[in-house]
Structure formats: C-alpha cells, structure tokens
Amino acid sequence: MNLTFLGTAAANAYPEAFCSCENCQQARKLGGRNLRKRSAALINDDLLIDLGPDVMTAAAMHNSPLTQVRYCLQTHAHADHLDTSHFLSRSPGYGVVGAPRLQFYASAGTLRMAAQLLARDCEPHSFFDPEISERLNLEIHQIKASQQFMMGQYRVTAFTANHDSFVESLLYAIESDGQSIFYGTDTAELPEETWQGFHQHKLCFDVVILDHTYGPDKSGDDHLTAEKFIEHIARMSEEKLLKENARILATHISHDANPVHAELVEFAARHGYEVGYDGMTL
Predict the structure, then answer these.
(1) Is 282 inside a domain boundary?
(2) Taking the model in full, what pTM does it have?
C-alpha cells in the first residue's frame, strides 16, 4: 500500500490564519513542510480517509488527483474532517465526468450529522433516499466500532475513538497485500476496548499514524499530547502490536505547543517516531 498525507494539521490548520503566536509566524516565514492543511490521507489512488475541507487543494498541490477514489472511510463529522459540499461538487450535476461511485463508510452519528448538513440541498428527499444516492453518485454504508468488513481489496476494522461520542468517532485499521496501517485521529487516550480489539482481531501494524494535537509540555484531555503519544507507542511495542521496523508517524498537529516542522522532527527522533507532513508518501 502507498499512503499520502493530504493534510496533517488539527482543526485550525498550521499556521492558523488569524494567529500571531511564535509558531504560526515561524511557519509562515519558513513555508514548505511547515504549512499544514486539515488532516486527510489517500491510500493508493482509490481510498480516501476523511472527505475534509482541504482535499481539493491538497489533491492539486501534491499531484494526488482523486479521480479514482471509490472508497471513503470517514472518522467523524467535525467540520475539519467532513465537508459535505464535496458530495455535491463531485457529482455529475456539477459536470464531473468519470468519477467512480463513491462507497462512503461512516458511523450512524456521523451519517446523521451529514444528513442534517445536506438537508436543504437534498429537499424534498433525505440524504439516505435512493434518489439522492443516484444524484450524488454515492452509496452509504453505516458501520460501527468493532466491525470488520471487506472494502474491495482492503480489510478494514473500525475502532472506538475517545472523541465526541455524539458523532460516534471511529479509528481504522486497514489491511491489504500483507500490510497493515492503523490510522488513529482524532482521539484522546485510546479506550481499553480499542486496545482489546487490536488483540481480538490479531492485528500487528507496519505503520501507525496517531493524533499529535498538543505538543511537548502541553496538557490536554480532548486529543493526544506528545507525552501521551509516546506512552501509546510504548504500550503498542510492549503488547507486540508493531511489526519489526514499523513506522510511527504523528499527524493532526496543531500550533498549540507543537513547534515548526524541523524542531518537532528533532523532538520526535529522540523518542522513536516520525512527523508526517503534507504531501509525504509512505
């Protein structure tokens, strides 16, 4: 599998456009890998993780067209991860030619929120009606935590995130061609049921991508901090959830105590992990 980071920032991007903190000012000055769009990822050329607000820009900037995307795993319905206007803009009614029918996988809570956001555009129908599916070139799949399913060549296992139970946030293990990726954002400390699920499904990861919203020396309980990130990786190693030479990467990086890229890379290297950046391909 090939994975490309289309975005690696938390909700307010990095730099935050309205912010004059030292980190944001440095990121603007340095440019390059210091400029982060809201988090999303592309696996091979057909699987998108999160239909977020920046995927159009990212696809163009990083030479990663989404023309072959036929699967989307949605983590949750927060605005930095789901922009429902894309359901409309990728549809035949907007002049789109050749796009595969999108198989969209999400929790009941996330689908409920998507339906509310699209209510006016779908009138007099519902987002869930067959007429809308045809109009949007879309097929909806409701999934839940602990569910394992096949999606083309991919075996996917959904896990509970510690993040906004109202929209039923999910994390995903994705397996194909003997390789396994865990994509773990957005979440605070992983629930015990998720740790147990790793073992129940006999998972062992080649790549782990984890939330790194808050940087070194920063506390927070709604997302992972650098300290908690390091603790999670240590536990994964102790519980033999990592393959030999597994790669560990940080994403969902905010300007809040996370320094600019080179400084964060230096910190991460001392603790045995890497820092994702927009356009990076594994």
Answers:
(1) no
(2) 0.97
* Amino acid found at 32: G
Contacts of 206 (CB under 8 A, 6+ apart): 179, 180, 181, 243, 246, 247
Question: Rounded CA gap, 30 and 47, in Å?
Answer: 31
* 281 lies in some domain: no
Residue 123 has pLDDT above 90, yes or no: yes
Number of domains observed in the structure of the chain: 1
> CATH number for the domain including 130?
3.60.15.10
Residue 81 is which amino acid? H
Q: 67-98, pLDDT tens digit by residue?
A: 999 999 999 999 999 999 999 999 999 999 99
User: Rounded CA gap, 221 and 7, in Å?
Assistant: 23
> What tens digit of pLDDT does each residue of 96-122 get?
999 999 999 999 999 999 999 999 999
From residue 112, alpha-carbon distances to 72, 125, 169 in Å are: 17, 14, 12
Sheet containing 242-251: order of strands: 148-151, 154-160, 170-176, 179-184, 205-211, 242-251, 274-275
Q: What is the full DSSP assignment across 29-62?
A: HH-GGG-BPBPEEEETTTEEE---TTHHHHHHHT
- How many other CB atoms are there within 10 angstroms of residue 166's CB atom? 11
**Residue 218 near residue 225, CB atoms below 8 Å:** yes
Quick: pLDDT tens for 237-276. Answer: 999 999 999 999 999 999 999 999 999 999 999 999 999 9
> Identity (one letter) of the amino acid at 128?
F
Q: How far apart are alpha carbons 136 and 16 in whole angstroms?
A: 33
Residue range of the domain that includes 68: 3-274
Looking at the domain assignment, is residue 41 inside a domain? yes
Could you tell me if residue 252 is inside a domain?
A: yes
